[in-house]
Amino acid sequence: MRHVLHSADEATVHKITEHATAPGIWLKAFVPPEALEPWLAPGWHLAGGSGYLMSASLPVAPTRALGLVPDGYQLDTWTRDGVTRALVRTTDGALAARGQIAVTGHTAVVDQVETDPAHQRRGLGRLVMHRLTETAAEQGATAGVLGATPEGRALYERTGWRVLAPLTSALRGPDPH
Fold first, then answer.
1. Which terminal CB of the chain, N or C, has fewer other CB atoms within 10 Å?
2. What string of DSSP letters covers 102-142?
3. Three-state secondary structure call for residue 59
4. pLDDT tens digit string along 60-86?
């Protein structure tokens, strides 16, 4: 289960975290970590580090030679059950980069974008984002939203996205640290 609070306050966060006692429940709020942490009930901890809610108008203007797959890689995209996935593999089949997007009316939600560390700095993240947002725009989306890590924020800003708010996650269960 995942709770996403578009406007978080101490009473709401405490009520949710006090009553949600099963392990593995997530809470995401658009506040900085230092605001969210003291509101959490016992058994909850911050998870995933600092993040950002970001948005962009679609289609995002292409930069450089987007859409061109670098030598040594292949890009596959497919849509199933309303979710479009993009997968970049090396010619020998190893995962290099991936991401997905779901269109919900005029808005598209980007999720699980990642580039394997061995394949970073080759334009693969930009390639995945371009293909996903291009597909969403073709399906009628005019705006995109995503949750970004600090590392991902740099990629997204280079591709036309902007930060709207901090995004902090908390998880019910044992703190892995």
1. C
2. EEETTEEEEEEEEE-GGG-SSSHHHHHHHHHHHHHHHTT--
3. coil
4. 766 554 568 999 999 999 999 999 999
